[in-house]
Amino acid sequence: MKTQTRHSLMLMLCAFIWGTAFVAQSAGSGMGAYSFLAGRSWLAVLVLIPTVFAFDAVRKKQGQPYGWPKEKSERKTLLVAGLVCGTFLFAASAAQQIGITINPSTAKAAFLTAMYVVLVPVFGLFLGRKGSVQLWASMVIAVAGLYMLCMKNGFGGIETSDWILLSCAVLFSFQIMSIDHFSPLVDGVRLSLIQFIVVAVESSAAALIFETPTLAEYGANLLPVVYCGVMSSGAGYTLQILGQKELNPAIASLIMCLESVFSALGGWLLLGQNLSMRESAGCALIFGVFLQPAVTQSLGILPDAWMQDRYYRYYGVITSFLTNLTNLEIDKPEAYSEEAINAILDNVEAGEKYTTSPVYPGSYAAQTPADEQVKQPTILYVMDESYWDVSELEQYGFQFDTDVSANLHALQQTSAYGRVYSPSFGGGTCDVEFEALTGYSVSYLPSGSKPYQQHVTKPMFALPSYLKTEGYQTAAVHCFWARYWSRDTAYPNLGLDDFISLEKMHGVQKVRRHYWTTGLVTDDSMADQIIGQYETMKAQSDAPVFLHAVTMQNHTNYNKDNYPDDQRVKVTEAPAGLKASTVGALEDFATGIRDADAMLGRLTDYFSQVDEPVILVFWGDHYNPIDSNYDIYTRSGYASGSSADPRLHQTTLLMWSNYSDRAVDLGTIAAYDISPVMMELFGLRQPAYFQFLGRQLRAAYRANTRGTILEKDGTASDELTPLQQKWSDEHWLLQYDLMFGKGYALSRMGLKELAEAAD
Question: Which H helix or E strand runs over 587?
């Protein structure tokens, strides 16, 4: 389970405990507030003492640090943390119990207390924490819920108890922010213990000064005191400390505000308290806060952009709508201006003017005089589903009964070859496709967003739209339904004028029906479709062709039953310890790679014979788990068992042409560099934006993708140098300008038609 998800679930459980504790607190409102608080706090201390020892025992067994801090400075930090957090908790809890004693409405008390969801982000501004639009929207929703629940007679209807509970919210805000500050520095369980010792001492003193506590009073309220002491104090606040350790305090407050919903429902179900339609609507609004994307993303709920209907079925209308909404928000870079865009492009032009040495000395462009170079070749892009050269596993203890990549290996001797650093693993095909067609990086977009569905909503600069201004005709071929990944609307906005999807295909062969009941179109049939569409376009016009194709045959899931035994590639040797199902899944995958290789051979054979220059760019979109685990990679030593392993993001890349036989080792390049590198290799006229990407590739890094920086020497790191940061910032400025901004770069590139279409 992801760390953020685990900590978020801790806070949800904490919210449930606190919410039901309001019922207990209301039931115990017959005794003094300080006396009640003292009783529950001493019980919490009694619960937490053995809890500390239990946690130490577990940590000792796991070989982790345990026990009380050895250093004096660390002990001092722990004591200060307990004193500060405990004092804020005492003041907040006392205000809460006094408010409940005056007016025992659990729903009202919970909603007023939950106003820390508003106050935490506000106070955070003074500490330099900037809230997102979603967080501020959440505050507005929370305030609306509060108003509907409490302000039955308008603002004039605020009661004394309401003011006390609002002060409680302020104090709880301070407590939450104190926990945020101290929890990464100290042991969470010990902090909880010391915090409650402080609360117990301070509340006992207040009880003796202001009240007259008696044993009879405690006896009459035993159940509420025990529940609040053991569950709300001992368990709840410990969960808060542990859960907040990895979360933004504003997001933590959003999750914890669910206590108001649990409280209102508890008062209704257990105490028979009325919950009017107005109050129910207030509860719904608070629940809507919980469903804000800022919270759901921390829980691992991300939009299913490939199949939105499935996503709405799984998570409901409200969650789906709100989580989709978050990905529409794109903050303008602070440095964005026309002057900044022009300065970047000025540097690009100057660099291109004074650069004399070729990037790829052995390439067609470097070896052919400029006036003899092909100017407008046919350009074919083929992105093959899940493709990578699986024969690489033969260096790691595997053997297959056939050479699954025979054509690829032969073509590498006369082509440019290397790897594509994919932003995806196990899915997200459209992210890779988007980068390859545009030069834009998905790393600059909100987490979980899918550009085809959320951002490619108007005509914009991309390779196809640029080539159209150069006189090209453009089309795409994909053997799945047009609506998936919203390609039917995204493709035209990228400049692809025609789209042949599954709906328009007839007579195609399908395989792999074990998982895909209707089958998937074979790569062999895709070769037919690509060749057929090329011939159609050439028959219609003499204009040069840009044709983009995406295959599907080798899509996950993998199972040996997908192919007849006599057609399936066999694994003849494998590392020890692999399950039969895993070996069978690898055979299924390798069969798909063999068929993709055969398609590559068919395409290059055909286009070798056409009477015009052709460039074919062929690459895989991403790696997948094979079977339900990473055993193929880990038991062989090929890669680690992590989807973040850079090795599992470098798919196979080939750039072939029928008018050049020069082998060029490209190394690894980012998916967003495919088009600039292709144009560089073959001497095609590049727009300034692609020139920028080419210079970035030479000067800064080979890829900067979702937190991984692939250095120029091919090693991976997770931190940008100052120089790399400068290049990355400029990349985002240009991308923002072309995708969301004023399009200043379009004018500089002479693409006024595209600028007008985007407007």
Answer: helix 580-608
